[in-house]
Amino acid sequence: MKLNVRDRIHQWGPLFLISCISLFMELAAIRWISGEIRLLAYFKNLVLLAAFLGLAIGFALVGKGKDYKSTFPWLWGVFVLLVLVTGRTTQNLSLVYPGGGDEALWNTAELSFWLSLLIFIGIVTIFFFLILLLFIPLGQATGEEMAKHLPVPSYIINILASLAGVWLFSLVSYLNTPPILWFALALIGLGIYFVCTHMLSWLIGVTFLITLLGIGIANPKTIWSPYNRLDLSPVFLEKGSEKLLWGYLLTVQHTFYQGAANFSDSFVEKIRTTFPESLEDVKSLIEGYNLPYLLTPSGSKVLIVGSGMGNDVAAALRSKMGRVVAVEIDPSILELGRKYHPEKPYDDPRVNAVVDDARSYLNRNQDKYDLVIFGLLDSHSLLSSMSSVRLDSYVYTIESFQQAKAHLSKEGFIVLTFAANPWIEERLGQMLEEVFGPGKVYFRKWMEGVTFVSGDNMPNSIALKQFSLWESRQEFSNLPLATDNWPYIYLRSLRIPAGYWQTLLIIGFLCIVMMSRSFPEALKPDWHFWLLGAAFLLIEFKSITELALLFGTTWFVNSLAISGVLAMALFANLYVLKTKGLNLSWIYFLLFASLVFGYFFPLARLAGYHPLVKGIIGTTVLCVPLFFAGMIFSESLRRYGETSRPIASNFSGSAVGGILEYGSIWWGIKSLYLVAIILYIGAMVAAIRQRLLSK
Q1: Rounded to an integer, what distance in angstroms lies between the CA atom of residue 121 and that of residue 110?
Q2: Per-residue pLDDT at 384
Q3: Is 349's pLDDT higher than 90?
Q4: Which is more confident, 6 or 306?
Q5: Is 425 helix (H, G, I), strand (E, B) or coil?
């Protein structure tokens, strides 16, 4: 019997709604908690793993006689309360992190290793398990809805709803909306689902309303850009009754990020007459910003990557540069610079402001510049919740510096400023020397950090004498250099920081204890689907990371990449749905062939090609393995005959795959394909043992 539209909505609507809400809530919770609690901005992937495990447990509970769906409102209330309280109590404190010797994080507390480790593990563990528990009801609800339908069609609806969730969250991110709107949308959708399933009560409605009010009242003036939580405050020079607005201070995730300061001649004169005691510090800052422009004649063409609110742009204009191209990835920060920078540098007709990722701009632009400036770019955030790579990591690689060099005019040079500790300073110097050669790298330390100057034809000017010739130090002779395959500029060595693996061990042990006592169903995975989940997450991570490298690390590219992964899974499921049966042996062969090809394919060579060519070839190389992997999963799901246990196993395997992603710190990102191949071999062996391969 053919169903009309109303019947189809009644049949598939609840599944679509809860699937969309689950994905949307996952993205929103990760984004909010990483903005409120700075520590978790660097460990968003741990939050994602907690959500995966929660969904896995929820799916495993389907049909077991235990109903946890009604616990969501109360868990949600506890989650909101703890995030708000922790965010308020820690916002003015230094970051507690035990891996200071292994990884560079700014503004960390000077505590003993063991005390730092104890506090770090405590915070991460509490929120890990809170998020895990929060997603169990969502996983169970989704699993129950999928169990009402045939496996492959229900999985197709689940993927379509996940795509809708990704793009709905992308839309609210694009519009710079605050968290109260994100969660209002999610809770309204969940309320509708509760109405459909006869679970809604006035107490649940009151709980949702109170939590939304708390989220809205907490930070009414905070700006939520697509990347960061931003807070802007004025900075005054004060003495007695005298008060002079100097500029503005911008924080991200509750920590200092950058300022918009007035260094104009007229303002300096005001300082000279009104606040003479501050004059030397101000002049030192001005000299640091202005000095690189003294190395090149007035009227020069300048590219600034990471232009922020405009201090470097204003310095270029004060130094009478000609054309200035200012590239900034965060549109909200650029808009704040337009509105609040005292010197109004972005209003100058000589300035062309571009919202883009630095590598993306270098890839697609062919112009030559007399000066390429790398601003202070530390992002205080990760590229994606699926990655341990930071948002700005691909800016500080040898390949990035080579691209910048290719954009220099004959007499041009690069200026790079970084608030560096000794080993990052050494690494940057070695990388620049690798690109430009010995004797062509100079440096100077000042209040904001260290500034490097490098070029093939360095000017013989008085200004250059204020820099020193950079020389490598023997104590750092074994320091690994950052490349596109190992873009970990903030890690000292090829090893996982102690704080990471110690925390993962403790969380893993506690997870096993908790699940064995409370959720034993989750400890009985189907190993075939478990291994498929672990492997798929690794190639998904590599695909998202390398697509970002080709097209930029912008939030839009990240959304497209995640959508592309889901689209490949969707196409694979649609293909399986249209066929009576697939030969999985051949699909496994094609999967292995595509992974090996992807491992050896020199993706970086596509950077200089036309965007259309780059897009077609790059996307094909990266996404074809995902398509074959999706076909294997979907056909296996059809042969298994139900969805709950396979998808529960797949989610828990994905969580372990997220842990294996840290292996890229040892072996590089390309190595993840090799790990995925091993996991897929294990999945194929498990399928043979279960006779899934030949059904």
Answers
A1: 17
A2: 45
A3: yes
A4: 306
A5: helix
Listed in sequence order, the DSSP H helices in 418-526 are: 422-436, 498-518
Interval 66-99: pLDDT, tens: 889 999 999 999 999 999 998 888 776 667 777 6
Orientation angle between helical segments 179-196 and 202-218, nearest 10 degrees: 170
Rounded to whole angstroms, the Cα distance separating 65 from 72 reads 17
Tens digits of residue pLDDT in 632-681: 999 998 888 888 889 999 989 988 888 888 888 888 888 888 999 999 99
pLDDT of amino acid 563: 80
pLDDT class for 38, splitting at 50, 70, 90? confident
Tokens 């800016």, located at residue: 395
Distance CA 230, CA 380 (A): 12
Res 341 pLDDT > 90: yes
Beta strands in 177-318 (DSSP E): 223-224, 229-239, 242-252, 255-261, 302-305
CA 430, CA 482: separation in Å to the nearest integer? 10
User: Which pLDDT belongs to residue 695?
Assistant: 53
Residue 666 contacts residue 522 (beta carbons within 8 Å):
no
Residue 385 has pLDDT above 60, yes or no: no
Mean per-residue pLDDT, 382-403? 74
Calpha distance 548→551 (Å, rounded): 5
Confirm if 589 and 629 have CB atoms less than 8 A apart: no
Among 133, 183, 153, which residue's Cα sits nearest to residue 21? Answer: 183
Nearest to 657 by CA among 634, 631, 678, 628: 678
Residue 626 tokens, joined: 């995902």
What percent of the chain has a predicted confidence (pLDDT) above 70? 93
Q: Rounded to whole angstroms, how far apart are CA atoms 389 and 537? A: 15
Neighbours of 470 (CB within 10 A): 23
Find all residues with CB under 8 Å of 405, minimum gap 6, and list them.
414, 435, 436, 456
pLDDT of residue 560: 72
What are the DSSP calls for 89-154, one per residue? Answer: HHTTSPB--TTTTTB--SSB----HHHHHHHHHHHHHHHHHHHHHHHHHHHHHHHHHHHTS-HHHH
324-328 and 351-355 strand pairing: parallel
The answer to whether residues 56 and 649 touch, using CB atoms and an 8 Å cutoff, is yes
Q: What is residue 298's three-state secondary structure?
A: coil
d(Cα 110, Cα 112) in Å, to the nearest integer?
Answer: 7
Among candidates 422, 430, 441, 356, which has minimal Cα distance to 397? Answer: 430
pTM beyond 0.85: the answer is yes
Vertex 45 angle, CA 28 and 142, to 5° = 55
Question: What whole-number distance in Å separates Cα of residue 278 and Cα of residue 252?
Answer: 27
Cα distance between residue 148 and residue 642, in whole Å: 10
Per the DSSP assignment, residues forming a β-bridge with 242 are 239
